[in-house]
Amino acid sequence: SATTGLSVLGSGATLSKVTIDAAGMLGLHARYADNLVITGMDAYGNNREKFNIAPVSGGAKIGHTRGVTVTDSRFRNNVGPGFWQELSTYDSRYARNDFTSNAGDGLYLEIAAKAVVADNLFIDNAMNGIKVNNTSQVKIWNNTFVGGGRPVNLVQDTRRNTNPKDQAVDTRIPWPDPAMPWQPSDITVSNNVTSRPDTTANCLLQPSELRRTDEDHGEREPLPPQQRLASDLALGLVSGQRQPESARPHHPRCPGPHHGPGEAREGVRHQFRHRLRHGSARVLGRRLRDRPRTA
Question: How far is CA 265 from the centre of its chain?
């Protein structure tokens, strides 16, 4: 396809074991596709013509849709995001997917609400593993992040759902919609594992410090409410600056910059076995042990 490989413009669609390869701009497009189910999809090498990443490119992009389930799928080597949802998409679930080696974010949640991202694998995405931009009610649980940019990036910009004529508003829903504020609130990040992000990235981004220090007295006080972008962020991961290489634990089988995809997956398996044995994580052991390697 010169531009889009597949477009879904109606409700109740199920895409099962669909492969979208080397579309000119975008693999999958969906709009007003309520209750969309995607399972076993392989979207790779899309945006072959190398259009700009924004406003549209990559493996898949969905907007103005309520109810999205994406499972057991792969979004890989796309010139853009692996999967991008925006335009007031509501109630999405991503489970047991691989987002690997995309030129943008692995998964991009933008001006949307209510998403669960659980039990997924993010490897070597050039920008972020997951970017959450002006999206509320997000649960990021039990995922694995290897290489790439920031594992999790939480972003708030100036956009708010205050104009009923904004193109991102879903006009099928009565406005104002209190469930769609376009603000990053009610976000939980818990029980995930990260390994060796790019040297230019933070290990994990927490978008603002929740407390600040009084320079005169050394005391800490809460930030004003408008600055507490992640006040309910459950710190299952530790935010802060990357540690130097010498300070980080290392194992010869852990994924590093010179390992291929198969070796990276084996390194992830080792890390989980170690963490499960020592009680520091309780996630993905069976899935990562049993899944076949992919090139």
Answer: 18
CA-wise closest residue to 125 among 78, 61, 55, 93: 78
Q: Which of 15-19, 226-230, 271-275 has the highest mean pLDDT?
A: 15-19
Residue 199 pLDDT class (50, 70, 90 cuts) = confident
Are the C-beta atoms of 288 and 272 separated by less than 8 Å? yes
**Is residue 205's pLDDT more than 70?**
no
Bridge partner residues of 14 (DSSP): 37
For residues 125 and 150, give the distance between their C-alpha atoms in angstroms, rounded to a whole number: 9
**Can you tell me the distance from the alpha carbon of 94 to that of 73, in angstroms, rounded to the nearest whole number?**
9
> Which of left, alpha, beta for 149 (phi over 0: left; psi -120 to 50: alpha)?
beta
Q: Residues near 274 by Cβ (< 8 Å), separated by ≥ 6?
A: 251
Q: Could you please report the per-residue DSSP string of the chain? A: --SEEEEE-SSS-EEES-EEE--SSEEEEEES-TTEEEES-EEES--TT---SSSS-EEEEEES-EEEEEES-EEES-SS-SEEEETT-EEEEEES-EEES-SS-SEEEES-EEEEEES-EEE--SSEEEEEES-EEEEEES-EEESSSEEEEEE--S--S--TT-TTS-TTS-SS-TT---S--SEEEES-EEE---TTS-SB--SS-SEEE-TTT--EEEPPGGG-TTTT--BSS--BSPPPGGGS---TTS--TT--HHHHHHHHHHHHHHHHHHTS--SSHHHHHHSPP--
Kindly report, residue by residue over 32-79, the tens digit of the pLDDT: 999 999 999 999 999 999 999 999 999 999 999 999 999 999 999 999
pTM, rounded to two decimals: 0.74
